[in-house]
């Protein structure tokens, strides 16, 4: 597995890098058969250290975790524990995913835009109905089943996931509702 360990305005020493590789390597071998690469980023937030870890699995799924603590090793250990908990929770489904899927998840490209927030008072009329685009990027849309999309959303810790439904090829969305349940939008079924 390839590791990319870096710090945002923090010097990440050899001892910490060795600790990260050893501990994260143990978690990955315990729960996933073929991780491809891991990215671990350390940063500071006031008096706390923040550790963000992203692990890409060979099937195309991605697991993410984030934790903070007053010491840098404790921040990583908290992040590792969260990753361990996520992967333990989905261990059976990940193994079934490996067995059922001979090829890795396919990704299609799509444009992603960041729109400027409205300026001024909330009740003011905007000058135009066209939002101002402040950033444009390429994003990847996975082709997975609904169950795999929910699992990917849970593993990445995100609030929603746009995906191409393997069943019919249409674009779908799964999202976390305020009541804690998962919502699924399938425009193909609306008539």
Automatic annotation (TrEMBL):
Residues annotated as domain Sigma 54 modulation/S30EA ribosomal protein C-terminal: 130-183
Chief site of localization: cytoplasm
Keywords: Cytoplasm, Translation regulation
Record localization: Cytoplasm
InterPro entries associated with the record: HPF/YfiA_ribosome-assoc (IPR050574), HPF_long/plastid (IPR034694), RHF-like (IPR036567), RHF/RaiA (IPR003489), Ribosom_S30AE_C (IPR032528), Ribosom_S30AE_C_sf (IPR038416)
PANTHER family noted in UniProt: 30S RIBOSOMAL PROTEIN
NCBIfam families, alphabetized: yfiA
Annotated family: Belongs to the HPF/YfiA ribosome-associated protein family. Long HPF subfamily.
Function: Required for dimerization of active 70S ribosomes into 100S ribosomes in stationary phase; 100S ribosomes are translationally inactive and sometimes present during exponential growth.
Protein's recorded name: Ribosome hibernation promoting factor
């Amino acid at each position: 597995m390839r590791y990319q360990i870096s710090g945002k305005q923090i010097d990440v020493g050899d001892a910490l890098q060795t600790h990260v590789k050893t501990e994260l390597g143990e978690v990955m071998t315990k729960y996933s058969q073929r991780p491809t690469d891991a990215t671990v980023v350390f940063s500071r937030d006031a008096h706390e250290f923040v550790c963000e870890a992203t692990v890409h699995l060979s099937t195309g799924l991605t697991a993410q975790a984030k934790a903070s603590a007053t010491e840098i090793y404790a921040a990583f250990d908290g992040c590792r524990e969260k990753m361990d908990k996520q992967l333990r929770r989905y261990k059976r489904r990940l193994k079934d995913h490996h067995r059922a899927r001979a090829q890795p998840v396919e990704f299609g490209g799509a444009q992603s835009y960041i729109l400027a927030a409205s300026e001024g008072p909330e009740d003011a009329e905007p000058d135009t109905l066209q939002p101002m685009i402040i950033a444009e990027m390429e994003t990847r849309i996975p082709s997975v089943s609904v169950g795999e999309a929910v699992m990917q959303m849970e593993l990445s810790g995100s609030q929603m996931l746009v995906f191409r439904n393997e069943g019919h090829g249409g674009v779908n969305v799964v999202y976390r509702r305020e009541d804690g349940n998962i919502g699924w939008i399938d425009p193909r079924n609306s008539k």
